[in-house]
Amino acid sequence: xxxxxxxxxxxxxxxxxxxxxxxxxxxxxxxxxxxxxxxxxxxxxxxxxxxxxxxxxxxxxxxxxxxxxxxxxxxxxxxxxxxxxxxxxxxxxxxxxxxxxxxxxxxxxx
Length: 110
What we know:
This protein has 2 helices and no strands. It is mainly alpha-helical. The protein has one domain (2-100).
């Protein structure tokens, strides 16, 4: 009887040790996966930062170009004879109508 209990105890201990080894292997695999995911996260965060910076630069340059165009339009309005100013004003009004409807050269479908 005592031999049977000892054999059962040995079997349970062996199974627990086997389970422990399996859990250690699984833990090691998960650690490797976690490290890889951390590296991927850092890479993606870097890309997002870079793209955000690029977007800000493009936005700034577009704003600068638009300001230059507005300044040029003001200069043309001051330099042109009155009959040309009427034509320019009509063109400007048409552009405002197109822009208000969501169209135009720089429209992004917003």
